[in-house]
UniProtKB/TrEMBL annotation:
This is Helix-turn-helix transcriptional regulator. GO terms for molecular function: DNA-binding transcription factor activity; sequence-specific DNA binding. Residues 133-231 form the HTH araC/xylS-type domain. It comes from the Bacteria. Keywords: DNA-binding, Transcription, Transcription regulation. It holds the Pfam family HTH_18. InterPro entries: Homeodomain-like_sf, HTH_AraC, Tscrpt_reg_AraC-type_HTH.
Length: 260
């Protein structure tokens, strides 16, 4: 496909200089114009957004752009990929979100989204963290029920190994640890209800036994459930739980959680 046949796409960034390397890498799929699109321009032309600081000013500018052009396809690159960022993508109907700079497999995916006629060489099947986003939504809805990596991978149409890789690559935590910590995150609120026994909470959160719940709580939050119930707080998190909180919550500079 020659240059004249390539679709036009827009690139809205917040750096002092255009991202020349990224433009070059995407040049075989679309002709990129380094500016925000205007409402009168063809809605078939996608817009790539690259956050720099991901601060309130940048977020408001992009949310305004999206509100003015709700039919345009937006592809967003974040300085860090977190659960709040993925949720923001869902809330704002973003076509897809990626981590910047995007790895090779995501570059191919972006090209395919910019240009439906793009034919990646030797790339048979593309799975991106859209699948991860779908999986996280399912966990949010059903973490108190029996869940397995195999079951969720099947539901979002991805292989077990690929989904496992996405958790490690984008969130820095194993699937099993993420699910465990999500259940533990819900435990403190339940422990504040004196009408619920520790055993009842354990089964409500789908731990196999109360002792398994107590061991996990102690390991990752530094106290037993009974001790936590008495003190109402915990100041000693495990490394695994700390990493879980890091991917569940945005960094101080990241305000998407509040703005979403």
């Amino acid at each position: 496909m020659n240059q004249a046949e390539l679709p036009v796409a827009f690139l809205r960034h917040f750096e002092d200089q255009p991202p020349v390397k990224l433009i070059g890498k995407l040049g075989d799929a679309a002709v990129l114009q380094c500016r925000a699109p205007e409402p009168h321009e063809a809605m078939s032309s996608a817009c790539i957004v690259i956050f720099k600081n991901q601060d309130e000013q940048e977020i408001k500018a992009i949310e305004l752009l999206m509100a003015q052009q709700p039919r345009r396809k937006f592809i967003v690159l974040f300085p860090n990929l977190s659960v709040p960022n993925l949720k923001w993508c869902l809330d704002h109907r973003v076509e897809q979100g990626y981590m910047a700079p995007p790895p090779a497999i995501d570059l191919v995916d972006i090209k395919c989204r910019l240009n439906p006629n793009y034919q990646p060489i030797g790339h048979q099947q593309r799975h991106t963290h859209e699948k991860l986003r779908q999986t996280l939504e399912l966990i949010e809805q059903r973490f108190g029920t029996p869940l397995s990596l195999q079951q969720l991978a099947h539901e979002v149409s991805i292989s077990d190994s690929r989904l496992c890789h996405l958790f490690n690559q984008y969130l820095g935590i194993k699937f099993s640890n993420y699910l465990l910590c999500r259940r533990l995150e819900a435990a403190p609120d339940l422990l504040r209800d004196d009408g619920l026994s520790v055993a009842a909470i354990a089964y409500r959160l789908n731990f196999s036994t109360p002792s398994h719940f107590c061991r996990s709580f102690k390991q990752h939050l530094g106290l037993t459930p009974t001790e936590y119930r008495q003190l109402k707080k915990s100041e000693s998190h495990s490394k695994v739980y700390h990493q879980y909180l890091k991917c569940r919550q945005p960094e101080p500079r990241t305000l998407i959680c509040e703005s979403g």
